[in-house]
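Service request form, structural biology core

Requester: graduate student, group of Dr. S.
Request type: structure prediction, single chain
Budget code: on file
Notes: please return the result as structure tokens.

Sequence provided:
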Amino acid sequence: MKKSILLFFSLLFFISCKKDAPAPITDIFLTLDQVGEGSMNIESGIYPVGQELSITATAATGYYFERWEGSVSSEANPLVITPEVDFYIKAIFEPIPELSENVILYTPKKMDENLVFMIENGGRAAYLVDKTGTKIRQWSFDLNLGNDLELLPDGGVMGLFKPETLPPFNFGGYGGVLRRYDNAYNLVWEYALHTEDELLHHDFSILPNGNVIVLVWERISAAEAVAHGVDRTTDLFAEKIIEIDPSTNSVVWQWRSWEHGVQDVNPDALNYGDLSANFDKINLNYDQRANGDIMHANALAYDADRDLIYMSVNFYSEVWVIDHSISTQLAQTSAGDIKYRFGNPSAYNGTGTRLFYNNHHPNFIDPSYGAVGDMMVFNNGTPQEQSVVFELDLPDTFVTNGALVLPTVVWTYEHPDLYFNLISGAVRLPNGNTLICEGDWGFWEVTPDKEVVWQYKGRQWFWRGYTVPN
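Core staff response, request fulfilled:
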């Protein structure tokens, strides 16, 4: 009897529990909200549990989509969710700030947020500009720029300037005076070189020890040129790199391109040899323009880890790599021959694909920016009237089995509207985008997948632009 009563109450409890158990959830309520002006592609309402929902936020004119808040926080757009319970999501639309008339494209969520240091080409000013086009700071000088200007960590600047009077000889990109200004615009250092036979030009680089390397044109007489197998009747101007100690204003190191030539024109003259077998030397007859500016280097980049100098040589459409670790005395010998070169195998009768047709601004990419390659180079693309930005992976070993190892192209950017045959350059930005200076137009910012997300159109030519953290 007791067992029957116990069974009865157990069954009653089971039936009671089963009756009171909640029904399974089959629907959820999605609540959509927003701040600012814009719209979404679906509405608040009831949706089946587990249904995948894709919510796209579209900003109204004058606004941009910033982020989602609520049950999740995200910047993804569209936002894909599969809610199992009631879900609340709010779209945040922010107003686009007032833009300078120079800014003709502005995509906030995809742009790099850092400032741009813009350098007038041959002008008397440089600007620190934010992405709205606002000039945060401006520098004005009493001399015209001789191209490069660098913003220093202490807020000062160092740059190449043109002297007040025209030098005895000059070509495009000439300078003559190196100057450093402190953060209060005081001139604190100067080095001048603009004589009958030598002229500072285009670019410089500050070494880790504080010394400065800079490009120099040096005069080579017609008689000496002929003796070296160069067929010409007028003087020429070859490239030289000098290193200056600012504390003494003395030249403490130099490398002369003229000491590393080869020619296959005159077997009775100096430097006669096979061009392709001497790819570490310079074909002195490759470019013989009448004004004597036969190389026209325009940029320097320094590799501190390997103590190498990368020099952009515009008329050879190449980048030459120079060993800075050897002494000036050794640099005069075969030890100072070109360690590596790339961009135009035809300059030494080599084989392989030609990358450059006039080039500017080789510069190393910060590895923290997520790049695959080591260096960016701006190819002006003069014959094709199409400029191309290259990201290159440079080989660790420059020569294998007696042959140059060519760099690997890992990324390029070109656009039908991107072309200038002079100056210009490109740098990788911290967020992985690329900032391009189109010298006669202004600046482009493009994403790794080649979407243009920012453009700044100037009223003058620009030499270069550098990124500066906010």
